[in-house]
Amino acid sequence: MSNAFRDLLKKVGSGNHTSENLTREEASAATRMILLQEATPAQIGAFLIAHRIKRPIGEELAGMLDAYDELGPKLQPIATKQRVFVLGLPYDGRSRTAPISPITALLLCAAGQPVIMHGGDRLPTKYGLPLVEIWQGLGVDWTSLSLAQTQQVFEATGLGFIYLPQHFPLAQRLFEYRDQIGKRPPFATMELMWCPYAGDAHIVAGYVHPPTEGMFQTAFAVRGTQHFTTVKGLEGSCDLPRDRTAIIGLSTLNSDEPIERLHLVPRDYGFTTKNVPLESTTQLLNAMQSVLQGEPSELMQTALWNGGFYLWRCGVCPDIQSGIAKAEAFLKSGAVTQQLQKITQVIGLVTRSLAQRA
């Protein structure tokens, strides 16, 4: 048993009236002891549920990110004029609405904007459809690549994927605890802000509940993160909704305000107010293939809505409307499909090269 960890557990787990927030340094130490399994299983489970009940604060999330930076993997800087976008999405996947972020990532890469994604397999508590399965259905398998191989793919194509079971097994072990306690602990919030890139990055963090955005802002401020976007997205993802106003926070460098607020109404850009439901993985993949072929559909509308926003946000296009037009042109011309084929080919070359050396 770790006596040092027990003291931190007592601090967050003493009840509504006597529990205390951790300092940034304490939160980092607790996370480090959890990842390294220096705390006992009983201590870890108790901490995760107690911290959820207490509710985290931004300073604590900043400390947790410090530990992830220390112990976790990072893709190294690549030669690019664009600031790398890191898309933070819930690791436990999607169950109700069709995800579009892989198409968004391909579109951005085709336009010269590098993107990093991260996640694992079907994970608790939702056990929803994860990114890695969608990529596999599109012909891109990230699961067997080492970090060095992923770096090669990232350098050649502008797209990288940190796959937790392969690249960050210390964090992967924690999902058994999540399953047993049956609730998302504050680690699930922190992961949305995690940046597994050693260079200049722009972090895009999705969320569901408004208080989460406030925690994001505090954690980013504490850590000196200057470039970020917060999105009240579908199921906590970075995907912009079509059934309601998209609420978006933009980091600002030359303002006394913590963020600039955007309220984007889909109807104002010609989109209907309808989210595409997630019926099955097969149905989604078929719909995504149609989008890649430039065919009109409801999912194409979602792809254009998201693509237009992110092409503007990364600076490729001067405004959202021109971003939508560019997204449509890229999809109909086959440029996005070509980007997907390039990624598949590079992964094939990387894996064959390793096999030949072995």
From TrEMBL:
UniProt domain Glycosyl transferase family: residue ranges: 96-335
Superkingdom of source: Bacteria
Keyword Transcription regulation belongs to the record: no
Gene3D superfamilies assigned: Nucleoside phosphorylase/phosphoribosyltransferase catalytic domain, Transferase, Pyrimidine Nucleoside Phosphorylase, Chain C
Pfam family, one: Glycos_trans_3N
InterPro entries referenced in this protein's UniProt entry, alphabetically: Anthranilate_Pribosyl_Tfrase, Glycosyl_Trfase_fam3, Glycosyl_Trfase_fam3_N_dom, Glycosyl_Trfase_fam3_N_dom_sf, Nuc_phospho_transferase
Residue span(s) of domain Glycosyl transferase family 3 N-terminal: 6-70
GO molecular function, a single term: anthranilate phosphoribosyltransferase activity
This protein's UniProt keywords: Amino-acid biosynthesis, Aromatic amino acid biosynthesis, Glycosyltransferase, Transferase
GO BP, sorted A to Z: L-tryptophan biosynthetic process
A single cellular component GO annotation: cytosol
Keyword Manganese: no
NCBIfam families according to UniProt: PRK07394.1
Protein name per Swiss-Prot or TrEMBL: Anthranilate phosphoribosyltransferase
Organism taxonomic ancestry: Bacteria, Bacillati, Cyanobacteriota, Cyanophyceae, Oscillatoriophycideae
